[in-house]
Every structure is written in structure tokens, then in C-alpha cells.
Write a structure and sequence with these properties.
Elements (H helix, E strand, L loop, with lengths): L1 H22 L1 E7 L2 E17 L4 E5 L4 E6 L6 E2 L4 E7 L1 H29 L5 H23 L6 E5 L4 E6 L6 E2 L4 E7 L3 E7 L12 E6 L6 E9 L10 E8 L11 E17 L4 E3 L2 E8 L2 E12 L3 E6 L7 E4 L8 E5 L3
Parallel strand pairs: 1-21
Antiparallel strand pairs: 1-20, 2-11, 2-15, 3-10, 4-6, 4-9, 5-8, 6-7, 8-10, 11-14, 12-13, 12-15, 13-14, 15-19, 16-17, 17-18, 18-19, 18-21
Helix pairs in contact: 2-3
């Protein structure tokens, strides 16, 4: 009986010792740190807006009435789309008709004067005067025609594909000549208005490449270049505006008014990088585990530049030691580890 009890106790202790050994070691995958040259950048927020260099203010050179409006602010239109209907002021139409009658009359007068010159009943001076009067009348009629005064009702169409950014009139308005009717921005000419902290603006130069992403969908990205840097602080945001021209952008994903995240590429720098999976975070900050004598040693780090696969780190680590890239969630400082050979 005593031998049986002793055997049970030994087996029990052996099992607990084995369990204790298993609990104090963990199976992990390891890798090595790398030195890699990455783009250094500045992350800023902003909004998409029409590029003011490609916004056309549409107006007419004649007075009249806005009969109908076929678009709304913010609407995307194709080239040739009807924007509004405009009825020429009767006085303007009457001026055109009067100019037309004047041309007809002066043409007949010119013909009569030419016949009288042939019959020696009129002088060359009178003929020159008749020709000049007819030419002036033709020129005046051409100007009125180009101003559209011969047209009683006209449907104004979009000269290019774009976005209605502003309507300056309402249906039924009587407007004088050259009144702004609406503003049309080219839909393929957008910009990003980025807000940079004053103490960081020195890093930004015109011509720098910028990666633009939607705040809510980081997978959507377009590129642009800095084309303007404001020289004063915006009194409302207390930041400095940096304007970025977009290119090769999908209009369905980036539209005016959208909030965006911009990454201004300010240069290149060499970093110590680790796989993203190697970096953990807790209330003390970011950290990694390095392997020394089969034990996991916690190293607190400061993270920097990130890509889809790696993170730049700084800290009191040994670049020649292996780092834990999988299984690190189960580790504690100085815990024994077993490396997965697979």
C-alpha cells in the first residue's frame, strides 16, 4: 500500500513538473531585423475641392430673363448637357433687328452710290463714305450676333464635363449683360486642400509627391503634387493651407467635399524595420521580443514610418538578435521559448 501511494505521488509530481515546464515555454516563429530605406513623409488631413484654375464662370453678354434652370449645385454634368434656358430681353432683340435693317439699307445705298459713280453723278469720296458706313454696319451686326442678340431663346449647354459648383441666379430672374449665371468646374481637375501645422510647414516644398487616401476607405488612393503653399496661417484652423493637384484619380471615389488623409513625401531615410506582426502594444507603449539564450526579452520601442508589411522602430535593441514574429501574444518578459523550425 505504501509503495502504491509513493508511486502515485511520484507520478503526480512528475505530471505537474511537466506541466510547469510546458507553461514556462512557448513555441514561436522568429525573424531578423532589416535596414531599409523608406520614404519619409508628413501625414496631414484635408478636403477635396475643385481646382480654381479650372473653374469657368458662365455668363452672357446680353440682358434677358432666366426662363428655366435644369441643374442643381453639386450636380455632375456631361459636355453638352443643358444647364439653363435664357430668353433675350426684347430691347436687345430689337437692337439686333434694327442693326440688320441698317445693314440692308446701307448695302442698297452703297449699290446706288456705285452706279452713280459710274454715271459720274457721284464722287469717289462719297463712294468711300458709303463703303465705310456699310462696313461699320456689318461689323456692328456681327458683334450683336456673337452676343446672341439674334436668338430669342437659347438653351445654355456645358462646354465640358464638370461639376456645378455654384448657381448665381434663380428661374425668373431678369439679369443685365455679363451677369454671372453659374460656375462649372472640370470634373477631372480636382485638388486637395491640406492643413499643415505651422511648425512642420518648413518640410513641405512645391512639386513634392503626395499620396491621397479617403479617411473611411484607405484602400482608395490617388497621387498628386504640391502646387501652392500659403504664406499665412488660416485664422480659423490655425494651420497653413497646402494645395495639391490630383492626377489619374477615379472621380467616383474622390469628389468635392470629401475628407481625406494626405501623405506628403518629404524625402527618403534608412530605418531599422521589423514585420508589422512583431510589434505589440500595451499601456506602456509599443514593444517587441528578441531571443537571447532561448528566452524572450521584451524591448520597448518607438515606432515610426509604416508600410503595409513593415514598421520602422527605434529602441535599445540588438539588431543581430532574432525577433519574434509569431506567437508573441503568449509571451512574457524572460519567458523560455522554442523556435518553430517550419
Amino acid at each position: 500500500m505504501k509503495k502504491l501511494l509513493a508511486t502515485v505521488i511520484i507520478l503526480w509530481m512528475t505530471g505537474h513538473i511537466a506541466m510547469a515546464l510546458a507553461e514556462t515555454s512557448a513555441l514561436v516563429k522568429t525573424g531578423m531585423m532589416e535596414k531599409r530605406t523608406l520614404s519619409s513623409s508628413l501625414e496631414v488631413y484635408g478636403t477635396i475641392s475643385p481646382d480654381p484654375r479650372y473653374v469657368e464662370a458662365i455668363s452672357l453678354a446680353r440682358a434677358g430673363k432666366v426662363s428655366r434652370i435644369m441643374v442643381t449645385t453639386g450636380q455632375i454634368v456631361k459636355r453638352g448637357s443643358q444647364l439653363l434656358e435664357f430668353s433675350t430681353d426684347p430691347a436687345e432683340s430689337a437692337a439686333y433687328e434694327q442693326a440688320k435693317l441698317s445693314v440692308d439699307y446701307l448695302q442698297k445705298e452703297l449699290q446706288r452710290t456705285e452706279m452713280m459713280v459710274q454715271q459720274h453723278l457721284s464722287t469717289q469720296t462719297q463712294l468711300a463714305t458709303a463703303r465705310k458706313s456699310f462696313a461699320d454696319a456689318l461689323s456692328n451686326l456681327d458683334i450683336l450676333r456673337k452676343q446672341g442678340k439674334e436668338t430669342l431663346t437659347e438653351k445654355i449647354t456645358a462646354p465640358f464635363a464638370g461639376i456645378i459648383t455654384r448657381l448665381d441666379v434663380n428661374a425668373g430672374d431678369h439679369v443685365p449683360p455679363k451677369t454671372l449665371l453659374l460656375h462649372l468646374a472640370k470634373s477631372d481637375s480636382l485638388m486637395a486642400d491640406m492643413e499643415v501645422e505651422p511648425e512642420e510647414i518648413y518640410q513641405v516644398k512645391t512639386g513634392m509627391l503626395v499620396h491621397i487616401r479617403s479617411i473611411f476607405d484607405r484602400s482608395q488612393m490617388v497621387k498628386g503634387r504640391v502646387f501652392s503653399i500659403n504664406g499665412v496661417i488660416n485664422p480659423q484652423t490655425r494651420r497653413v493651407s497646402v494645395l495639391v493637384q490630383l492626377f489619374d484619380h477615379p472621380a467616383e471615389h474622390f469628389i468635392p467635399g470629401m475628407y481625406i488623409l494626405g501623405e506628403i513625401i518629404t524625402g527618403k531615410q534608412t530605418y531599422q524595420v521589423v514585420p508589422r506582426s512583431a510589434v505589440l502594444r500595451d499601456e506602456k507603449g509599443a514593444y517587441i521580443y528578441q531571443i537571447s539564450d532561448s528566452h524572450a526579452i521584451r524591448i520597448n520601442v518607438t515606432t515610426g514610418k509604416e508600410t503595409d508589411r513593415v514598421i520602422a522602430v527605434q529602441g535599445h535593441f540588438n539588431p543581430s538578435l532574432k525577433i519574434v514574429v509569431q506567437g508573441n501574444y503568449e509571451l512574457e518578459d524572460k519567458m523560455m521559448v522554442r523556435e518553430d523550425a517550419k
